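[step 3/7] fold_predict: job queued, chain A
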Amino acid sequence: MNQLYEEGLLDPNFTTIDTETQDANIMNGKSGVTLGALNGGIGNYLRTMKDKGPFHVAGIASLVANEGDKAMSGYYEYPVTGAYAVITPSCKNKKLAAQFLNYNYTKEGSLLNNFGVEGESYTIEDGEPVYTDLITNNPKGLTMQLALAQYARAWANGWFVQDIRYQQQYSSLPEQQDALKNWSKHDGATYQMPPVSIPLDKAAEYSSILSDVNTYVDEMTTKYIIGAESLDSYEKVYLKTLKSMNISRVTDILQDALEEFDSRK
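[step 4/7] structure written:
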């Protein structure tokens, strides 16, 4: 990253650039590579630029050191993404709250969460829900994500199951299908940390240490990239400081949580 920065290939404003500017830089040709999503990124770019001359964007696989290697990480999500809903003891109407949550897993609730309102955001064709032009070709010029966000939650997290038919229609462009294949070329399922639970008696200690560590890591990462800190200090200063911040305790807590998670399989 430091080399890219020194060669002028990395945006000098990478620490402060906002999403709107980042998107604009891609669509006006100022930037060539960015980090983005399948729909909010690739889909948004292609649909916005479809009538504005030649424009192409592609999703690339995770970078590796040697050709033929398989990246140890990449875009990967467990079936349960980490967005949870709970009913607390202080809830005044637990039965109604449970009914509301349960509704989202019914056929009717699933259609509402994934497709919205029948006759407006989708219709039923040959027994299958199909998005209307209001979503796929919004008359106000809204992207598919913004148009759908007014009716459904399929693009986000929540207490419901994301319908595969949403993804098939939402990511129907050839470039999106290719990106899905490229982004799947990694071994994240083997190496990515699962959604472990930190015990309550260790949560405060874990959060306190990790908060300080993350702040330090972010600061040093930026300094290393822009050359404000010599890369020669990596082991003698950076790693030594992390050890002094008790990073090993975080590792121990996570290891215990991982073992507890594996015991439930």
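[step 5/7] annotate
The first strand starts at residue 122 and ends at 125.
The chain has a mean pLDDT of 92.
exit 0
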